[in-house]
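Tip: read the tokens left to right.
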């Protein structure tokens, strides 16, 4: 089966080099090369490639945002991210956005063909050294927000979301106001919120209040 690939990169010489390497493979067809996020998205919507090879930095949007748009438009598309940097933050952001693989540009030409085939097969591709350095961060990143809340903190969060004051929550749960204040602070910290209002909004967005119910 022919793998249809689109390349999105604003560095023309590099993009053409990548396209040339891919075209040399009998089982790969390069359906188009785009030099911007907007052009890349149009290409994906019009030609529905199997795999998109996209640069992390584009002139009109970064590759992370563009990847999200691509997957929203064509959910079955496999996206490989290219970057001049292999920093863990960049790799983690790419994976969270839905990329199935990540390559630094100094390795791209040598490994890209293999990565494209792996992506088309529905698997993920990361260089071994990238994976080793990234694993601890991914473990933290994929924990669901609020998973580390205690049962008591969930109770407090539920009452916070109903608009009760610390004093009212203390009376409801039979706790001291100071104890409730400490629970509230723990909840804010674990949800990354700066206020009770924001904590309630985060809890609703993450379905934590539904879980409580």
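Filled-in amino acids:
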């Amino acid at each position: 089966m022919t793998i249809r690939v689109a390349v999105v990169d604003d560095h023309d010489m590099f993009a053409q080099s990548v396209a040339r390497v891919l075209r040399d493979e009998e089982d790969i067809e390069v359906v188009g090369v785009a030099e911007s996020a907007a052009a890349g998205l149009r290409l994906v919507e019009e030609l529905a490639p199997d795999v998109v090879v996209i640069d992390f930095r584009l002139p009109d949007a970064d590759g992370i945002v563009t990847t999200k748009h691509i997957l929203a438009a064509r959910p079955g598309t496999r996206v490989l991210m290219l970057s001049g940097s292999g920093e863990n933050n960049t790799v983690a952001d790419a994976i969270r956005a839905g990329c199935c693989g990540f390559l630094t540009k100094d390795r791209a030409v040598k490994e890209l063909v293999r990565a494209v085939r792996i992506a088309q097969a529905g698997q993920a591709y990361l260089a071994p050294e990238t994976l080793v350095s990234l694993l601890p961060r991914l473990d933290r990143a994929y924990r669901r927000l609020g998973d580390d809340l205690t049962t008591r903190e969930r109770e407090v969060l539920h009452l916070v979301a109903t608009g009760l004051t610390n004093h009212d929550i203390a009376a409801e749960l039979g706790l001291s106001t100071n104890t409730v204040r400490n629970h509230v602070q723990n909840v804010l910290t674990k949800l990354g919120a700066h206020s009770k209002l924001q904590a309630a909004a985060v809890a609703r967005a993450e379905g934590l209040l539904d879980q409580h119910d």
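The longest helix spans residues 105-120. The two ends are 49 Å apart (CA to CA).
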